[in-house]
Amino acid sequence: MRLLGLDRLGHRFASGTQALSGVSLEVERGEFLSILGPSGCGKSTLLRLVMGLERPTEGAIAWAGARPRIGVVFQEPTLMPWASVIDNVALPLRLQGLDRAERLAAAQAAIEMVGLAGFEKAVPRELSGGMKMRVSIARAFSAKPELLLMDEPFAALDEITRLRLDDELRDLWRAQGLTVLFVTHSVFESVYLSTRIAVMSARPGRVADSLTIGHSADGAAFRASADYARQCGLVSAALGRAMAA
Questions:
Q1: What's the whole-number mean pLDDT along residues 23-42?
Q2: d(C-alpha 243, C-alpha 14), whole Å
Q3: What distance in Å separates the CA atoms of residue 66 and residue 3, rounded to the nearest whole number?
Q4: Contact, 130 vs 164, CB < 8 A?
Q5: If we measure between CA atoms, which residue out of 30, 10, 26 comes closest to residue 18?
Q6: Total-model pTM
Q7: How many CB atoms within 10 Å of residue 99?
Q8: pLDDT band at 245 (very low <50, low <70, confident <90, very high)
Q9: CA neighbor of 153 nearest in space, from 129, 117, 118
Q10: Residues 151-208: tens digit of each pLDDT
Q11: How many beta carbons lie within 10 A of that of residue 82, not counting itself?
């Protein structure tokens, strides 16, 4: 069942730069859809349009029914440095006007969901990069989103932490029944995480290809499989064609 559709979406900045042109894409409920493309192709701009932080200059965004609750995880954790983990996670709920007891209970549940129980009173300077990103994910989950938008959230992390968080994200997506729109420039990450990958061309970005991903195993077994290598090869070839076009 469709959640939203992008119909010939385009966006031109005030400077005159055309970031996106003719982007048509449907997002299905419950899918994990990765937006894969080279730097500067408009992936982050596309997410900002879906968030409502920017307005398209061409085309339209159509929601199937009421606009869903949206959670957002950016490239940087963007935490309040003076606030504790639980207060950072509870921030969206405070902005919604929930009373303190209710928002702290919801924040606590989200903290436990991402494996940070025991760090509720810690401040960001006391956390590792991976832990800060977990706080950011917990904050996005605290308001029980139906659609989760993620803009290269693990790009700045070391490889071991990134692989671990990829595993945890897949588990959370399955457990929560979310729809995820995930921006990345990593072929390997996109194949591991996604049910489908939309491949974008260089600027002005457009959807050049869409590939359905099948997972023949879970976790490390899938990463080590010939099927994973084969699908990475197919996606890499599609990305190469999109960049050459």
A1: 93
A2: 25
A3: 10
A4: yes
A5: 10
A6: 0.92
A7: 9
A8: confident
A9: 129
A10: 999 888 888 888 988 998 999 899 888 999 999 989 999 999 999 999 999 889 999 9
A11: 10
DSSP 83-140: S-HHHHHHHHHHHTT--HHHHHHHHHHHHHHTT-TT-TT--GGGS-HHHHHHHHHHHH
55, 41, 68: which is closest to 11 by C-alpha?
Answer: 55
CATH fold of 22-68+146-245 reads Rossmann fold (3.40.50)
Q: Confirm if 242 and 83 have CB atoms less than 8 A apart.
A: no
Residues paired with residue 9 on neighbouring β-strands, in sequence order: 23
**Tokens standing for 143?**
């308001």
Distance of CA 72 to the CA centre of its chain: 7
Helix/strand/coil for 193: helix
The structural domains of the chain, with segments of one domain joined by +, span 22-68+146-245, 79-144
Q: How far is CA 243 from CA 14, 29, 184, 237, in A?
A: 25, 29, 15, 10
Sequence-distant (6+) residues with CB within 8 A of 235 are 36, 187, 190, 191, 197, 199, 211, 213
Do you find a cis peptide bond into 204, omega within 30 degrees of 0?
yes
Tokens representing 194? 């996604």
Q: Is the pLDDT of residue 217 over 90?
A: no
Buried b (16+ CB within 10 A) or exposed e, 137-176: bbbbbbbebbbbbbbbbbeebeeebbbebbbbbbebbeee
Give the dihedral of Cα atoms 111, 114, 117, 120; nearest 10 deg.
-40
